[in-house]
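Supplementary Note 3. Input sequence used for the single-chain structure prediction.
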Amino acid sequence: MHLVIADEGRGPFAEDANTIKGHSTLSELQGTGRSADVSFYVLTNALTLTDRGLRSNIFLTAAFRPANGEDAKLLQRTLALSDEQAAYLDRMPRGEVVVKLGGAPAFLATFDPLPDTFDTNAYERSRERTRNILLAKRRAPAAREGMTGQPAPAHPSPSASHAVAAPLLKIIALNTHAEALLRYCAQHGVILTTEAFRDLELHPQAGTRAKKQLLDLALIEEERITIRRGRGGTAVAIRPTTSGYHRTRVKGHGTRGGDSIQHEYLVRALAKRISGARIDALAGSKACDVLIPYNAANHQRLAAVLGIAPRDGEIIEIEVEVSDPERTAPRNIARTDHAGIAHTIIATMTPLRRTPPGAIVVDVFELLEAL
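The predicted structure, written as discrete structure tokens, is reproduced below.
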């Protein structure tokens, strides 16, 4: 019959809550609330910070990626997860949540991406229109009084009232660090967080807070990616969403969208190392991750690394395969037959069992190091 929602519930439901009894009174109330048809919906950033009395009365548990190892161990016990499931929970991406109902086995749920409906131009037009209406209202009484010698009526015209009451599109303010991080990210497309914090001279804590605000507002997205082989070869990368590009009014330049941050990072890294390379360009009707019009003066090293000898003006394409190269690589080769492409390079993160006919397969990280 009644639902009590407690955001930031670790305060009133904490095990060390500062109460007369020395423990959380709300946890006791939650345990006895069922007889009065009262349910509690408690949100907390760490399950370990809540009172044990609260945890013993939980029917539904929905867990995102844990904040630390201690919380991960408690979630493994609470959700009854195997070691393999717990390992996945610890690296679970945004948009996924593990849910457990009563004594039933836990299951994985995903959220659909939020639609990017914010229109910066519409917001600006609405704000300008409202400002003009307010200025007209402010000046109209004085103008009418000067023309007639009589005071203006106390109430504005119905049309003006209706126009002022029109709903406005609102934009959430960002702090200085978040605004700077979003613009920097939009200018680069994909950027490692450590590089962004360094270039913007942000303290790691300030940078992390700014990144969290942008993630919460769905202005950027993040992914842990591989940037090189070997130990320490992973990093967290961020890129703007469509709403993020709209917010900064920076035109997105890069891949055509729908790909992972890992894929876009590798495509941009290759194009950055090759003179004259173009990202997501068309060769006839074929879209290429990286398109290179060969020039012997600029691309001798590339030709030597790939073991090819193209003529000036011939087109070389590089297709970066990340998710399922065994399936997507042959499909990419089939589309190049009628595109006039001289050489197709398949750059993969994992070795292919079989090289597609007419293609040159290379390890993308070895290619990056060689260039």
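Residues 28 and 53 are 7 Å apart (CA to CA). The longest strand covers residues 286-293.
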